[in-house]
Design a protein that fits this description.
With about 280 residues, this protein is of the alpha/beta class. About 30% of the residues lie in helices and about 30% in strands. It has one domain: Carbon-nitrogen hydrolase (Nitrilase/N-carbamoyl-D-aminoacid amidohydrolase). It is built from seven helices and 17 strands. Strand 4 and strand 5 form a beta hairpin. Helix 1 packs parallel to helix 3. The protein is globular and about 50 Å long. It comes from Tuber melanosporum (strain Mel28) (Perigord black truffle). InterPro entries: C-N_Hydrolase (IPR003010), C-N_Hydrolase_sf (IPR036526), Nit1/2_C-N_Hydrolase (IPR045254).
Length: about 280
Amino acid sequence: MPLAAIAQFTSTNILAQNLKICQNFIHTAASKGAVALFLPEASDYISSSVEESLTLCQPVDTSPFVLGLREEARKCALRVSVGIHEPTGDGLKERVRNTSIWINERGEITQRYQKVHIFDVDIEGGPRILESRSTEPGTVLTPPFDTPIGKLGLLICFDLRFPEVSLALRRLGASVLTYPAAFTVPTGQAHWETLLRARAIETQSWIIAAAQVGKHNEMRKSYGHAMVVDPWGKVVAECLEEKEDICFAEIDNQMIARVRREVPLKRRLSVPHLYSNKN
């Protein structure tokens, strides 16, 4: 069975340092025989302000972080899923894009997804993060694509709270869904594992969730607990410590076929039907 590597670490505003950590993950994953490495949301950087983010954000064609990852992926013949920031295409330089890219074993970017659901939270006594002020939301889903671990559907962090997007990718043929994330500590403690297991159960798919962990700056701390959940809703791999870490999981696609055969989910009502006034 193909082996997937799932990482967690603490991004800062020092891109060269973040790159070195991710390159080390690539070497570790390749040395263990993994066919793909999954890195967290915002692996290139986590800033302390909107202004700093706009300064750090670079196009993929010139970003030393992305170019460094691509080269390392090529050297190790390893596929890499990674969350990064990209400039918007409007030229205003007022917001960035939160994207997930897929780098193939030749170091080429072959897939890209722009985060649809933007994270706004203002928890009493907890974090206040208004991503909508600095991030342009995406408008479309990237169709699932073939990989050695199955047909992959790309999602990001806050998308986890919206089951309709995971169900849409499932209907398009996805067997593995990714949620690279930077969950806050309060929301992570309350909902992270529960939501990941729910998405696995309702889509009958593998869920791979790389994660940011620890204190990024004085304003931001992430929950961690990168994990893999199987199509039956069981956590099969997890980074438990609050530190830089990597875990591995064998992705059994025969299990997907078995679960979907044994518990067929044949939906009988669409959303318009649910809200119809007809008797």
